[in-house]
Amino acid sequence: MTAADYINWSDLGRPVTALWRSANGAPAPKRVEPVDDTITADAAYRLASQGVAMLWNGDFQNARQILTALEHRTRPRPDHTERSTADLFYRYRQNRSHRARILGLLLVPLAVGNTIGLRRAPDVHAATVAAYGSITEASVVSLHEVLGTIGAHQWRTKGIPVAALNANIYPHYGTFFPVRSEYVDLVASAPLAAPQLAFDIGTGTGVLAAVLATRGVPHVVATDIESRAVASARETVSLLKLDGQVEVQLTSLFPEGKADLIVCNPPWIPATAHSLLDAAVYDPGSRMLKGFLAGVLDHLEPNGEVWLVLSDFAELVGLRSRGDLLNVIDAAGLRVIGALEAPARHSRARDTNDPLHAVRANEVTSLWRLCAS
Q: Which residues form the Methyltransferase small domain (predicted)?
């Protein structure tokens, strides 16, 4: 889960080495220079643009101001050129990648005991333990990533309300937060035939497995390939007192055996993930989608049903056509017996400043009901 390497720099002519940490899989920077409160935002941007990482030795809040200035400098400029949706998406991804690279080059020290030894630094112990584990060796981390761990920890502490469960859940760092309710509501409302056993493939926080259990499925096996997701799902199940119904396994795709109902909400954009946290959204070459569909019949009971929950975002930006999806379903020996749809209700669909606003506003999430051909 955590990328680790050593980075080196010179401090007053003295060589210094520290452990590089990134919970998001960012590679260790090759060039590092110590900086302090005297650096200007323009100078910081020039260094970052040259690929030079800056290890902050000044006041923590001043570092945040420099980071904010870098964020302003990496915002996409207004572009009134008429472009295709595919080109808009490509430029959006290109800017996101550039922005992440620049912002990730402002670094802070993370000391033994998960503290940041800078003036006016906040208490980051709980947030960084969740992301990196207990720090037992002097380390260096990206300030932008640290602030992300703080935000994630605040979400976890507060909890995320899930209307379909009439409860809050508390996702672990690194799992996809179910702030988009469309896919959850579809699973909560789809016709359910009384399955005795259901599989939830790629469970994440375990929210869909919990929904199935609360709908009366006696036994649900939820799987995920990420250990952070498995830990988060097990906690969700325990908090909702569904331990007797839901079993969570660390495995790739399918557990052993066959089920009456198999549910999967795979990453919905067939493009390369630029970070570990992107893996819940981006599925390069539709590998998970295709792998799930190709193997699902081997794990489905006769007369069983498959629920594939998928956004049409990829279709709207030209990365996959509806025909492509139906062809993959057909090639897997499956046929469509019904579909439920939910329009986008998440906040980004209402953000008119988003360059992809028109796409997000028209996005539809579908629950495809499939069975053997």
A: 198-313
